[in-house]
Amino acid sequence: MTSDDTQHGEEDQRPVPVSRVILSDGWTLVPLAGDVPDPVLAFGPIPAAVPGSVHTDLMGAGLIPDPYLDRNELTQGWIGLSDWSYRVIIPWTPDGSDFQELVFEGLDTVSEIRLNGETLATTRNMHRTYRVDITGRLHHGDNELTVRFSSAIRAADAASLQLGYRPHANHHPYNALRKMACSFGWDWGIDTATAGIWRPVRLETWSIGRLRETRISADVVDGVPTADVELLLDAAGGRSLEIELRLGDALEQITLPAGATSIRAVIRIPDAALWYPIGHGDPVLHDLEITVRAGGVVIDGAHRRIGFRSVSVVTETDAAGTGFRLEVNGESVLVRGANWIPDDSFPHRVDRARYARRMDQAQFAGVNLLRVWGGGIFESDDFYAECDERGILVWQDFLFACAAYAEEEPLWSEVEAEARDNVVRLGAHPSLVVLNGNNENAWGRQDWGWEKRLDGRTWGAGYYYDLLPRTVAELAPQVCYTPASPFSPDPGAPQNDEAQGTVHIWDLWNEKDWPHYRDHRPRFVAEFGWQGPPTWATLTESLHDAPLTPESPGMLVHQKAIKGNDKLTDGLIAHFPLPNRMEDWHWAMSLNQAIAVRTAIEWFRSLTPHCTGAIVWQLNDSWPVTSWSAIDGYGREKPLLHALRAAHQDRLLTVQPDGDDVLSVAMVNDTGAPWTGRLRVERHRYDGHLLARTVLDVEVAARSSEHVRLGSELTTPFSAAGELLTVTYAGRRAHWFFAEYRDSDLVDPELRTVAHPTQDGWVIDVTARRLAREVTLLVDRIDPDARTDAALLTLLPGETARFTVFGAQGADPAAFSGSDVLRTANDLVIGGTGGSPKRGRGESSGR
């Protein structure tokens, strides 16, 4: 062949761009084995959604009722015990590509992949991506792709025998299989053990080359914003590739020689704006464009939004123990966090818009960090993109929860594969600041009697102290790693020691009562919480018990905590009488949950800087259930969300015990500017009569706190049941009551409401003739989709509070003064156990 012939041949072989086609249409589902009901067997191929799951496909076909309703969970156990097959036809016309591949971003969980009857791969891991080479296996015309799923319950049982028993929470050996642990049920979660193609599937074809993996580490190195970009490519045909990286005004052009499969570029941008979390600056993002060319023709590329920030976890030893402090760009961040679980038990149903709604609610509640819990999933890029854009920090657990895990094969290789997949995928997101090895496993081994049951077997230490930290150091060195939660940085200290690192505080909910949060002086709290029911609208949409009671059949199916109702009752009666009417029980438990968590957070924050963060359990729910969440399973806001908003104010004013019979005013300033003002402390009778007063000038430095101890003339009431302290400072107000709600002289506050319609709802003015505690509008009882901007307000005699209501545009103005809509703590005290009192609410009018 002459040189002219060679040139002519290369010109004819024009590069074919990479093609990525999502395979989402035309799927069907059929049962393969199991105790499948006759109507399902007789139905024939069931239309299937991909991404999707068996449960949602059966529901979409009308073959099962919604598993979230009533007691349907109990009658649908056969689904998780059955085998299923998904099928789709792939029409294929050769497209000039030399290579073809099927990419499965998420298969749940034990599956066999077949193309035209040939088995190509088997899977056993919900949390990783599978690439299946099908080069030369596609026929011209129709090709049959099937994915056959075996029962995850049976697979977990078999794997538990093969690997050897390890202790675990709940009733299935979820720790033997790499599947979302809470899919098997949890103390707030429905047991579905579903199967399905839960993330997208695509057909990927290429010839000359393609991007296979993009690893990005954006950091601040020696004071300079720096992006370390490593690209892994597949190349063929003995041709070089041209790589272009464009980041702002910076441009890197690199030639990948024939036969090479990776490049690395370090891009420094000295004047680039940094990414900051909420309250510390703007979350500035930069666009990174990656272009791959062959012979000047673009054949592949990628776009990433990155942020430059440095992050570190500081564990300094001091006289009180060992702290745990998060620093971003050299600044300490006082964490006001919430734990995050999958927002749906069928996580494929959570799209970007739903994530955005949850992030709106998190920001409303003053949350600056979300901890993605280890019994769920590695969250989606949509979740992380929302956090990136808003400046919400993310702590992501690796997926190990409340169990011992075998370190032997085949589990070890599965864990390594999923860790590498997800650290690479998530590492470029600036919001990701902590990758954590496990949830409660180190603590469980220490305190939950595992050692005897393990009998020398492995329990996961090799993952938490070797594999995972090595993986993070290699693939995402800009992200902090911790081995466990709770976690003691001192090797000689026990886990869950409140003087060391991070702790989980559950003895209050399980054994004691919420005032005892003040017995703890933690350095950092990664979990704590209190249960409450979902909103009334969600409760009555999901349950149809007649009568509906705390112990009616459907209510018990939707209460997963061990002795949960007993703990709700035990945690209430010291503060309020136990109501007999269901509507009052619901309000009492919702209110008590909010008060409990508000008490805890205000106490933990008053310990600043000894305590540097608290992450409440939990922000959201995966289905309609009585749980620890602030947002229920249908996305509605419980009173707890408003308690979080109050306790998470960037400038917090709170009154706290400070030794025997001593009270202090704590002022916490979580802003970058000093907080100055005049502190006014007054002791009043409930009728407003002034008994004592003091006024002081105080300044609170940025990112710090001040405490003012109060004298006995303020803290010693003549009548504990009828007096309170009111504290005001620079636009903030706090109260301290000397007696429990049920032991106080609360009376009918004689509330008067005036309702003003607006374009998107109402403005409701509520005036109290007498002291009213925890004034709340339960507007979901008027319109299930309505919400308010405020709740849990204390009104002194003669004061008015304004509530902005979004929704309920067609409501009768009088509805907002209804006895089950406009609620107070007074209701529960003066109503006793007999239900809501019949009392005058005053005038209600619309204008």
UniProtKB/TrEMBL annotation:
InterPro entries for this protein: Beta-gal/glucu_dom_sf, Beta-mannosidase-like_N2, Beta-mannosidase_GH2, Galactose-bd-like_sf, GH, Ig-like_fold, Ig-like_GH2
Catalytic reaction annotation: Hydrolysis of terminal, non-reducing beta-D-mannose residues in beta-D-mannosides
A GO MF term: hydrolase activity
Residue span of region Disordered: 828-847
Enzyme class name: hydrolase
Pfam families: Glyco_hydro_2, Glyco_hydro_2_N2
Beta-mannosidase-like galactose-binding domain: residues covered: 46-199
Domain of life: Bacteria
EC number: 3.2.1.25
Bilayer-spanning residue ranges: none
Keyword terms, alphabetized: Glycosidase, Hydrolase
Alphabetical list of SUPFAM superfamilies matching this protein: (Trans)glycosidases, beta-Galactosidase/glucuronidase domain, Galactose-binding domain-like
Residues annotated as domain Glycoside hydrolase family 2 immunoglobulin-like beta-sandwich: 214-309
Family according to the record: Belongs to the glycosyl hydrolase 2 family.
Protein's UniProt name: beta-mannosidase
Organism: Microbacterium soli
